[in-house]
Amino acid sequence: MEQSIISIKNLGKKYNIAHQRGRYIALRDILANILRSPFKFAKHKAKQIVGLETKEEFWALRNINLEVNKGDIVGIIGANGAGKSTLLKILTGITPPTEGEIIMRGKVASLLEVGTGFHPELTGRENIFLNGAILGMSKKEISRKFDEIVAFSGIEKFLDTPVKYYSSGMYVRLAFSVAAHMEPDILLVDEVLAVGDAEFQKKCLGKMEEVTKKEGRTILFVSHNMGAIQRLCQKTILLEKGKVKMFGKTEEVVNHYIDNTNSRATEAHWEKEHAPGDSVAILHSARVVDENHNKIPFATANKKIGIEFIYEILKNGYTPIPNIHIFTMSGERAFMSHEEFNEKLGTAGKHRATMWIPENLLNEGTYIAGIVLSTMTPLTIHFSQQDALMFNVIEDIINSRKLDFNQKIPGVVRPRLKWENIQI
Amino acid sequence: MNNVTIIRPKKTFSWNDLKEIWQYKELLYFFTWRDFKVRYKQTAIGVLWAIFQPFMTMVIFSVFFGTLLKIPSDNIPYPIFVYTGLLFWQFFSSALSETSNVLISNQSIITKVYFPRLILPLSSVATKFVDFAISAAILVGMMFYYGYAPHLIGLIIIPLLLLVTFMAAVGGGLFLASINVKYRDVRYVLPFFIQILLFITPVIYPASIAGKYSWILAFNPMTGVIQNARAALLGTAPVNWILISISFAVCAVLLIVGVIYFKKVERYFADVV
User: Which residues of B touch A136 (CB under 8 A)?
Assistant: First the structure.
């Protein structure tokens, strides 16, 4: 039997809760702690030295055992915090595991973000070389594929313009083109297809499929987009709370996942230490509300639905724009909407952003709301909570406009549009 | 099949790390190229800034310390005396401060792609070295103007002095960079520290000014570098091999401690940055 190309044995990754979030500790805080409670600090230190201290530990991954065969495209799905990204980060080598072992037989490349290392001041041409090198291509390899990369991105005209003048679409196109021309044996991909316009996404998916079939490349693909997973992957891994819940045929795994995720609520809170965010802004809470900002357990199709979230701007100087993405259960994006640019959005302090979905727009069904806060220039994503909320939209039987039609109206949306009918 | 990657819980240091850096030498080149390219974008006189800064510092120091305060300069014209010191000093101080910040300024790359992290500090020192090379052109011009020719031995020890400076900047920088990941206090302490260091390094005055206490200055590795650079290029004194050896030893220890500490902290960079 052929050796599997990736074999993972007993993999585990432990975080100490105190270290888990990215916020940095100032020496001042430590000094202040010593002054405030010197005795407690001494006791704590002593315990730490003797090794008695009970640290709060958190296993992001534990006892992971997987074998992936050459040429397979394997999807990785799971709720937030299930350990998908951690697994990918360990596979790429960004962060080492706490225990266990991984053996990968072949050249490995990773794509955790499009345009990693792109520098806004450099031109498109320069960034192709820089980004290519960061992704692990040699200079010769990039030179050889340069024309192909440029042609694929379709930005020939702007090749010598600094990328800071690019539209975000052009930026993503260029970045993705570089990534699409890597030639590893194993490719690790995170939620990168979530950006870029639909047409270009399709082109990229096509390119990925093409090379996999032709060259036998192995791909591990993390996504929330069940549609993309179903289209691309033969096999899928379902992670739950740091463990492999299921590994098998994509269809079975995805169905199992969808059937079991309905427990998520119309309200979510994040503790400060675990809040999604960066040094500029963090997310506090999110919920589905009615027109009076009252939390609702489900939404009604013929009433206004509000999706709102409370976030805190920690630092001036950015203008983060709230945007909300609504997905169907199969992972297709129904639509996204963002607030208009406005200087006030960057004011430090707490903000509450509400997006109003008009009555009679969403069809009955279950939807997922992704909550994102991003600054356009320079393109920064402060947080992106892809499945922050999940809500059901139901028909109000009494005031329904379904008439006697006793089945679900087909479609993601069921807008009430203006019609015209003249007898001619 | 070649190219087998094995990932295990990280150990502190192994010789493979050095091999790995060699494999990634092209990335080192690209990071250096990027830093250099980006720095002078959207500036009117571009790379001339690399010359302008040390040159203006030299002019101002010459006027105040040389002409008005009449600080002794081992009987050579003060401008060329101070410029020789400044050249090495600025290479050291700018490389040190750049290196200490390198993990923070590249955090978006660190958390997304793997490469040997040591590449980053190395590339920032390399960038500063290019600056050094450019501003060294002025020194050559000044040597012509004042009629100084370097000793043959001088030309030989210059690379050695650069190596010592490199080790000092990288060693200290790695140490500071590792601390900076967790405690951003470094950002506030370092400029102050560098300023103080300027005064306890014989840049604007000769080491001989300290009289019988000048041996204390020898512990500062930059003292050995700057004094010997003057000795070698301007012939102020015979090359002091003892001083060079001390500097070399101090810096080698600093570099080793820096690398070991950096490797120790490296494993949680991506989780903490």
Answer: 115
Cα three-residue angle A378-A181-A74, rounded to 5 degrees: 95
Looking at the domain that runs over A61-259, which CATH code has it been given?
3.40.50.300
Other CB atoms within a 10 A radius of the CB of residue B157 amount to 22
pLDDT reading at A111 higher than 50: yes
> Model ipTM?
0.83
Rounded distance, CA A77 to CA A123, Å? 36
* pLDDT lower than 70: segments of chain B: 1-2, 10-13, 214, 273
Question: Number of helices (H) and strands (E), helices first, in chain B?
Answer: 13, 1
CA gap B31, B206 in Å, rounded: 37
The domain covering A267-394 belongs, at the CATH homologous superfamily level, to abc- transporter (atp binding component) like domain (2.70.50.60)
Q: Is A236 exposed, middle or buried (0-12, 13-18, 19+ CB in 10 A)?
A: buried
The answer to whether B68 contacts chain A (CB < 8 Å) is: no
From B211's Cα to the closest Cα of chain A, the distance in A is 39
* Half-sphere exposure of residue A390: CA atoms within 13 angstroms, side-chain side: 17
Spell out which residues of chain A touch residue B8, defining contact as CB-CB under 8 Å.
96-97, 100-102
Would you list the domain boundaries of chain B? Answer: 16-272
pLDDT at A20: 37
> How far apart (Å, rounded) are the C-alpha atoms in residues A171 and A323?
19
Q: Does B211 touch chain A (CB under 8 A)?
A: no
